[in-house]
Protein 1
Amino acid sequence: MGRIRLLSEAVASQVAAGEVVERPASVVKELVENSLDAGARDIGIAIRRGGISLVRVIDDGCGMDRDDALLSLERHATSKIRSAADLQAVATLGFRGEALPSIASVSRFRLTTREGDAIAGTEIIVNGGKIDVVRDGGEAPGTQVEVRSLFYNLPARRKFLRSENTESRNIEHQIHLQAIGHPEIGFSLMRDDRILFQLPATATLGDRIRDLYGVELLQRLVEVNGVLAPKIQISGFIGQAGLSRQNRSQQLVFVNGRAIESNLITGAVREGYHTALMKGQYPVTFLFLELDPGTVDVNVHPAKREVRFRDPNDVREAVVRCIQQTLERARADWQEKFRAPARAEPTATVFAKTAPDLTLRSEVTTPEATHRELPHLGVIPAVIERTRLEGSEIVGQAPRLPERRSDSAGDAAVPQPQQQGTRPAQQQFEIIGVLSKLYVLMENANGLVLVDQHAAHERVLFEELRRRMEQQGVPTQKLLLPQTFDVPPRDADWIEQNLSVLQRMGIGIESFGPDTFKIDSLPSFLDVSDAAQFMRKVIDDLKSASNNASAMRLGEEMIAKSVCRHAVKANDPLRYPEVEKLIRDLLDCDLPYCCPHGRPTMIQISLAELEKKFGRKV
Ligand SMILES: Nc1ncnc2c1ncn2[C@@H]1O[C@H](COP(=O)(O)OP(=O)(O)OP(=O)(O)O)[C@@H](O)[C@H]1O
Ligand SMILES: [Mg+2]
């Protein structure tokens, strides 16, 4: 007797449901997507007990007549595509005709729906995939779906659900995604009979972000604009340099209106931020990519969470460039804040004042003699020489560090009188003091600015070293003993391909047999004890960052690692002119508001915020 049997429709649906409906949040996702596809303007969601006991989605979309309502519960029944060709360019969120039958097969399900001009609507009740009731219903036009007792007939699946709180949070995240993706649509969420949020339809994404996450977040975002690649348009908002989160919950990416998860895009975002993002932290993005639907395959993931791009490299490059350009533009905006006079009296600039006592309280005043000089880059070779093994030799473009930039000649820290004339409108700020030997307090036209002196100095050193690297190449230093090391064949290929880049970066590396390499020199600003281990790390970092490593990028990576050791630390008391020079140098940087590890260097607290805090303004 044959052993193969066709599964019954009910079992087949449950199997399919296993892929489509993982947890209550997937139910919410599918139902809200259906409402959006139905042209709803307002979508109300209610959940109970983490969506396990109830998910209800009510919309004011087009509704269905009775025949369609019955058909919608059949597998592979959809109004959204007709032929295989349509699958090449899906413009709706749904396209498989899987969601409703899958959900209905693993829950107690009730659908009521009515078309706008119909006299009566339809109500259908399904239990565990079996239609129990079909009758006229009298609800308002639109569609309402209630899903109760999810997985009541699949105890094994139910066991996999997390706590009600976790499931609720997943649902909230799902609705955040949809709400950010569709600001023009009103959303509300009730959790266990309490209203969690009610978002009115808004004209812009910015308004929606403000309504959902608050104005403080919006103020720290930069708008992405501009068409960067002819076939890829990117819009939305990203966090300014220095803003990051401990998880991905605010890293939102949409492709043609669909919220997706994409390692390709998150990798590109990371690369775009590069040193503007703290290691181990996640950026804040509300990124919208628009591409020709024919170049995106949406039919690759059972829950439609991922897509495949026909030209992944184009997409990656566009995102990297977009992030870089947006951050650069944001810098100009920031600098605006330092252009206007810091004080109401137009004459009061920092130059007009005599240096104030930098310490705020008398007990922390440090005697003049113990004030530390702000270390200049000029000290770095000395540091290196001390940390290097005896007998090491400096080769290549020697680390003969150039004269300081002309504007810092002489006593670097004292503001030069001519600066007053040449840059009158720039960098207007007033230093108030230094808090806790670390935070510089200052005033600009916007209000109070706090600067972390260590982070600020790291940024200044980083950009200075990078400039030198660009202009003069990288100073290298011979290792006392050349080291050989083996790598897996794939890494060996990568090294071979990038050999010239690595050499330009001051890494003296050459092939030494199959899958073996020899290093005999490294950039002199690095302090590496195990060259082979260092190389493995560099290869890993760079491979994950980009397909085509550039010398600049590699160099930046290495510099970022090394500057921390040279920068002034917390507790290093600086003299007033040094602090002032540090701030001026910082404001001259390309990315002044975060250190090369992505931590913020400055925090602005606006006068408006202070007024609010002190109850002067409500
Ligand atoms: N809220 C709704 N308002 C109006 N029509 C709806 C609604 N929900 C579902 N439908 C109709 O029912 C059909 C089946 O819905 P279902 O979610 O099962 O499949 P789909 O959306 O076409 O594809 P997918 O499985 O990818 O979601 C839809 O194609 C649509 O015509
Ligand atoms: Mg659907």
Protein 2
Amino acid sequence: MAAIDGATITARALKEQGVQFVYGVVGIPVTTIAAACQKEGITYIGTRHEQAAAYAAQATGYLTGRLAVALTVSGPGMLNAVAAFANAWSNCWPMLLIGGASDSDQRGQGAFQEAPQLETIRPFAKYAQLVDSPQRIPYYIEQAARSALYGRPGPVYLEYAAETILNSVEEEAVRWKPAIPPAPRPLADPQAVRDAVAALKTAQRPLVIVGKGAAWSRAEAEVREFVDRTMLPYLASPMGKGVIPDDHDQSVAAARTFALQNTDLVFLVGARLNWIMHFGLPPRWSPNVRVIQLDIAAEEIGTNVPAEVGLVGDIKAVMGQINAELEREPWQFGKENDWSYALKEKSEQNQRNTEPMLHASQVPMGYYRPLREIRDAIPNDALVVSEGASTMDIGRQVLNNFRPRHRLDAGSFGTMGVGLGFALAAQLCNPDKVVVDVEGDAGFGFDGMEVEVACRYGLPIVFVVFNNNGIGGGPAEFHPEQPMSPNALYPLAHYEKVIEAFGGDGYYIENPDDLRPALDKAIANRRPALINVVIDPEARRRPQQFAWLTR
Ligand SMILES: Cc1ncc(C[n+]2csc(CCOP(=O)(O)OP(=O)(O)O)c2C)c(N)n1
Ligand SMILES: [Mg+2]
């Protein structure tokens, strides 16, 4: 009879549950899990910090629909992953964090890296358990996979005391578990579907909001069909962008504020009325706005604004129900009405206002021109990763998405430090596509060393750093003897040299006309590259710089 250790059982159980990627930082006691995963044919990616491993795992889960793992050592290693784990909680993305822990027979004795790990992670976890024996590892991994992927997705945690990984048991004592089937796709109550369509027909100024829940559910065909059938105006949430291509005629992205303020009935399709949507409340919304809400989580219905109709179910399945209802009794809001005219006029006006900034040739550059260069340089199926304050906010307006699940950003949690880990995952899950990671210089600072990982694994990510010397912009010059702004970062830093240290390609761009050739070259080379774009530290603080043109 053969003996099998906890690490091998873990690797086989992960493989059985469809895991393709494990990201982590190894050490005592988890190194053997990483090695065992490699033996089972799972790709192991070693990052430089546990936060990047956990960001990469959750992005992999969101992009592929399959569970991915972050693997950490005990104590500080596991705790380094907690903010990233919480980001998955806030985004409702699946991931499994495996945290090594000190030997259980040393608990309370001041063991090496002993810490209250389970207690720390519990509030953010859909499921969190201590694995109590090697025999039961597959049981826990199956439970964890179902919890992470079924219903509203979320992060899950398994803790392994050192001996659970290292000890061996007889193979036949192991209680194996088969792979879980794909997540069930529950339908909504048919009466609620009829009520939702009836309510839509009574609206004067309807608005559809497409969230990343629709992207997670792979509802792109159904959502697109719904919008095309009804000709309703729609707005995408930041990561709902691309579920319908951004250049769709009914997108009111350019009139976002106006649309939210004036709509009398909103249909939330896998989008939440949280801070990103200004809670659905005045002054950003009408006090009387009616809400139709579609969500996989029943408890989400009515958050901040009571829902007139709550549709609880899988977005893809329920949008199919709604389309079937519209097939039975066709109805169209259409484009020839005051609301559509007003939205179109507002969009065109806003676009006219930004147009000069998109083509500005000033040095140092503002945000819009370099973002426009990126927009024009990347292919339609590029994955766009983004973090920063203005770099991300303005980038979201300028950079388009034409495919679902092709944008990853600071998300519902507004987290800095997500970008590099997300970019690694984006490229690993889409080896043949262009991945561009647009970073503020402060955002880059949280996880910039992960460019080494891109170079080590030969991932041809194009990193672009918007260098304005600070958090939302810093000083124009370096005067170390003067009091320094809390926002300040080292001015005109040569971030491109960070990637050059590992054999990647660096570019330092001050002149807007030099950016497109650098982007073209970086994209064509299929090698990791970092383009450091120097912009005006005052850029966002003078957003009205072109107001005289339109006054
Ligand atoms: C983990 C974390 N720490 C701190 C913050 C606060 N914060 C918000 S945006 C930001 C950085 C913005 O600067 P940058 O990335 O350079 O973008 P810019 O606005 O300058 O283009 C920071 C530190 C945060 N959101 N998350
Ligand atoms: Mg900055």
